[in-house]
Inverse folding.
């Protein structure tokens, strides 16, 4: 099997797992905070089919083949009226997704630390397992920081709304409802270099901390 196909399968596997856990984290936190909407929609689940979006999965496959890997799952719908503190709880639900990706990156890094010789093949090259684990760290960190950008429809927009004073949050949400999707699309398709410059440094800094002292 060629190296390109192997890396494609690895990226797809990591992304499917990362997005599934990400959406589950949204659903579970909303349920715990009093909104049973995700439960009624069958989203309290760790099965990928319950969370993957068709277009998002196609985008995931195409971008993974190109080499950078991006996609999305089905948004977890919530009813803020069911929360005890709607603004605060909506922010908690939003940040639960990126937090789950951070946690996954930590888990992958811990497995790397215990993997030992399994990280390399017989000729000293990084093994398929090693590539999968390293991708698990990097992709999850990238997803976490990407989703924390304060742009609709990303989780960071809800976190920002929860942190801003009420009047400022209302103006911010109004602006994002009008222009957020345009800004998002420009970041993805036009200003990718700028996006990489914003996300790359914290991703590789934290990756360095998680893998400090590991021979890779």
């Amino acid at each position: 099997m060629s190296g390109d196909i192997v890396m494609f399968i690895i990226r797809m596997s990591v992304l499917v797992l990362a997005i599934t856990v990400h959406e589950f984290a949204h659903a579970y936190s909303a349920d715990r905070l009093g909104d049973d909407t995700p439960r009624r929609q069958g989203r309290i689940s760790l099965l990928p089919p319950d969370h993957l979006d068709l277009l998002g999965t196609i985008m995931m496959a195409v971008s993974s083949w190109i080499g950078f890997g991006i996609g999305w799952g089905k948004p977890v719908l919530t009813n803020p009226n069911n929360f005890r503190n709607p603004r605060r709880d909506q922010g908690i639900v939003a940040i639960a997704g990126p937090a789950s990706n951070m946690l996954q990156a930590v888990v992958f890094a811990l497995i790397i630390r215990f993997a030992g010789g399994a990280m390399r093949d017989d000729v000293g090259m990084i093994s398929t397992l090693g590539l999968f684990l390293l991708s698990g760290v990097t992709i999850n960190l990238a997803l976490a920081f990407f989703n924390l950008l304060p742009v609709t429809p990303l989780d960071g927009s809800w976190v920002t709304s929860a942190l801003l004073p009420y009047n400022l949050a209302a103006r911010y949400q109004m602006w994002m409802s009008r222009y957020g999707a345009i800004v998002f699309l420009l970041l993805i398709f036009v200003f990718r270099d700028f996006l990489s410059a914003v996300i790359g440094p914290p991703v590789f800094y934290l990756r360095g901390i998680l893998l400090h002292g590991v021979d890779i």
